[in-house]
Amino acid sequence: MSLQTEVKTYFNYIDGEWVSSETNEVEASINPANKNEIVGYIQRSSIEDLNKAVAAAKRAQKSWRKLSGLTRGEYLYKAADILEKRMEEIAETMTKEMGKTFVEAKAETLRGVNILRYYAGEGARKIGDVIPSSDNGTLMFTTRVPLGVVGVISPWNFPVAIPIWKMAPALIYGNTVILKPASEAAVTAAKVIECFHEAGFPKGVVNMVCGPGSVIGQGIAEHPDINGVTFTGSNNVGKQVGRAAYERGAKYQLEMGGKNPVIVAKDADIDLAVEGTISGGLRSTGQKCTATSRVFVESEVYEIFKEKLLAKVKQIKVGNGMESETWMGPCVSESQLNTVLSYVEKGKAEGADLIYGGKRCVEGELANGFYVEPTVFENVDINMTIAREEIFGPVLALIKVHSIQEALELANDTEYGLSASIYTKDISNILSFINEIEAGLVKVNAETAGVELQAPFGGMKQSSSHSREQGQAAIEFFTSIKTVSIKA
Ligand SMILES: NC(=O)C1=CN([C@@H]2O[C@H](COP(=O)(O)OP(=O)(O)OC[C@H]3O[C@@H](n4cnc5c(N)ncnc54)[C@H](O)[C@@H]3O)[C@@H](O)[C@H]2O)C=CC1
Ligand SMILES: O=C(O)CCC(=O)C(=O)O
Questions:
Q1: Which residues belong to any copy of the Aldehyde dehydrogenase domain (predicted)?
Q2: How far, in Å, is the centroid of ligand 2 from the Cα of 81?
Q3: DSSP string spanning 35-58?
Q4: Burial letters for 173-210: b for 16+ Cβ neighbours within 10 Å, e otherwise?
Q5: 9-256+464-487 CATH choice from 3.10.50.40, 3.40.605.10, 1.10.443.10, 3.20.70.20
Q6: Which atom of ligand 2 is the closest one to the Cα of 419?
């Protein structure tokens, strides 16, 4: 109880003010490394709170859109500087709130700083093209205008980077924003919004409303005054959000799941492939949409790959992400832990061989957290549940193949198409992979996870709504094109 009295309450951010919800209800955000520790209380908001934020954003949009891109960029540079100064503190909150290691949390926060600076610079770049008209006396060109008010629905797995890679381009192109962060990581998100507040953004340009996804998230998708909705999260919820936005003619962008394959060819650098598979599959406890989950290994190198992989997996130190020797932290929540454990049971029941891990970690202090062992299955059939559904946990499925062509066919045998990688030195393998793999992010001799902020990011098939985030690609979602003809 004494812990709870010291715990801070975080408010919604509406029209430049920190305000409590109309409901006067809060919910606790807990530390997945120790379920008895409350990191903070966040608002359990209602539609009335959302309506206030939307009204503020709509008012603010009128003048925000009139500023030059360079002036808007100045605000983003200021927010970047403040976030950079607060990096350690915000990263620590992230680790305490959603479990990833402090090293990863610091890298992610720095990524947020860099994304802000990248989009601040975009404010000085071109927003249109001159196109020759069929009439000599006409000047024809394109220009871009903001959508208006943008709703951002973000997940818990990258609580700094994802809100920022959605908000920064929205803002630089003249939109105003309402962020609804995932409740599991809303304290971290509130600290990011504090950076925007300190940077002095005009009132109403940036807003944050916390609360249940079914109320605030769905409310954003359905709100008649929200002109664009950008979402990252699960496929089921993404489709609901997309449908609701489509019904009312709003623009939407969905980034959802993955079932990302790695192919290990017989000529691969096996140590590199092992390293990339472990890093891509198990870092952040496998809680990335780009995480490796299916590993196709050519039969000639299968045994050596498996042996080296297991030797390394056995060395993984599971523990509290704030401890420097920890390599893998807990699952984000008890329900995520139970999801992972239920997939392990399904894997076993459907006949896959569990060759490492698969259990909850309960030794000593780990018993208070949502820890699971890094897990490896073999003899996995492509039709088994663990080869088809996104697990979002540290679970690798090894599948032996007899050719690269077979690996490609199996790798593509999924509803998802986010990220994929191949380990090989053979140029014809590389070219076949680049041409044939059905994925938006294609890696050669590198892990499936990890994206660069200046490059387009998004998936094929059911992994996304086919738009791309980040880099200059973001302008496509966050603006509308106007084609202008001026006759002299
Ligand atoms: N693609 C990715 O990066 C992510 C994928 N996931 C997948 O989703 C699974 C479940 O995780 P959750 O956190 O429950 O994901 P989720 O899809 O429920 O949550 C993502 C965001 O959507 C909001 N939301 C929830 N219900 C909503 C609704 N009806 N309308 C609008 N917004 C809503 C949530 O509050 C959160 O902000 C994971 O096991 C994983 O497979 C989860 C997080 C990120
Ligand atoms: O791999 C990354 O760095 C990005 C992953 C991502 O966007 C996600 O998990 O939602």
A1: 18-484
A2: 23
A3: EEEEEEEEE---HHHHHHHHHHHH
A4: bbbbbbbbbbbbbbbbbbbbbbbbbebebeebbbbbbb
A5: 3.40.605.10
A6: 1
